């Protein structure tokens, strides 16, 4: 059993949870994920490792209450335990060899972008974080992202905090002003990652994205995370989750993401009854 040692609300729909899992904490690296099961009747869900503490033996996850399992997970409190907590899974992000990087996070994607920014920062790389949210109430990890970046550009769609506009506007302005990025990491909703990739392609800047959002069971067996990268079939959970964003077929990935939306809505309705 894996005991919850910290639970913190980040906003109305997102929660941070630190779990006692010393063996995973020992090996975890940025970009990897865990699979958890709340109880013996629960489904397995993959969640990115948002942080880890090797000394304390804890692994931090951040989840958004979007379906039955995350609603169930959210009923647990500090001292409760998860039945399964398996990892670290997936390939660690390849972050070596860069001098100045823009890490771009959109909404809940900032939970995945943060460990990438932290790893780059700890490697001595110059890091600009561009984080976008719909409004000020949805902002997460502001202090944490500020701590691991040379500059934090906070964007909100409605201008209620930070600058008004999308992350791509800030990224484009920085590129045009000569920021000199040699690598971009983009993590967030698929339309956002596609928009970032279109922009960086124009400017010939290598770009890595995380396809974590399309994973289902995270084991390479369900086929739910199949995608086309550079004309080849890949599985986000075993070949990724990180890929060269300029090679990903976003149209296909977006279609795949919607495959089980009706079933998920039905399960959530049943859970709430
Ligand atoms: Fe099922 Fe990758 S998530 S095969």
Please, could you describe this protein's structure?
Helix 5 (167-176) packs parallel to helix 6. The chain has helices at residues 22-27, 68-73, 110-122, 142-147, 167-176, 190-202, 236-239, 250-257, 261-272, and strands at 2-9, 14-20, 33-37, 45-53, 58-64, 81-82, 84-89, 100-106, 126-133, 151-156, 163-164, 183-187, 207-210, 226-229, 232-235, 242-244. The chain contains nine helices and 16 strands. Helix content is 29%, strand content 32%. The longest helix has 13 residues, at 110-122. The strands form three sheets. It has a seven-stranded antiparallel β-sheet. The mean pLDDT is 92. The protein has two domains: 2-89, Translation factors (Elongation Factor Tu (Ef-tu), domain 3); 100-257, Rossmann fold (3-Layer(aba) Sandwich), CATH 3.40.50.80. By secondary structure, it is an alpha/beta fold. The structure holds FE2/S2 (inorganic) cluster. Residues 215-225, 235-237 line the site of FE2/S2 (inorganic) cluster.
């Amino acid at each position: 059993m894996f005991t919850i040692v910290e639970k913190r609300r980040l906003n109305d729909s997102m929660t941070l949870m630190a779990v006692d899992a010393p063996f995973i904490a020992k090996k975890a690296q940025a970009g990897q994920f865990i699979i958890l099961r709340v109880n013996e009747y629960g489904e397995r869900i993959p969640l990115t490792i948002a942080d880890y503490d090797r000394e304390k033996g804890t692994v931090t996850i951040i989840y958004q209450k979007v379906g039955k399992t995350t609603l169930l997970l959210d009923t647990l409190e500090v001292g409760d335990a998860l039945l399964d907590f398996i990892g670290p899974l997936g390939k660690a992000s390849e972050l070596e060899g860069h001098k100045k990087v823009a890490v771009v996070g959109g909404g809940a994607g900032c939970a995945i972008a943060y460990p990438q920014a932290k790893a780059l920062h700890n490697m001595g790389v110059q890091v600009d974080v561009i984080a976008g949210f719909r409004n000020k109430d949805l902002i997460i990890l502001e202090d944490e992202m500020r701590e691991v970046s040379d500059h934090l550009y906070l964007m909100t769609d409605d201008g209620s905090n930070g600058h008004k506009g999308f992350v791509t506007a800030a990224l484009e302005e920085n590129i045009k002003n000569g920021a000199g990025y040699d690598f971009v990491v983009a993590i967030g909703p698929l339309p956002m990652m596609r928009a970032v990739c279109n922009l960086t392609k124009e400017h010939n800047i290598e770009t890595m994205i995380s396809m974590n959002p399309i994973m289902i069971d995270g084991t390479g067996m369900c086929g739910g995370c199949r995608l086309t990268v550079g004309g080849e079939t890949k599985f986000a959970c075993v070949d990724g989750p990180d890929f060269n964003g300029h090679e990903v077929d976003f149209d296909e990935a977006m279609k795949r993401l919607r495959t089980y939306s009706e079933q998920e809505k039905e399960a959530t309705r049943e859970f709430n009854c």
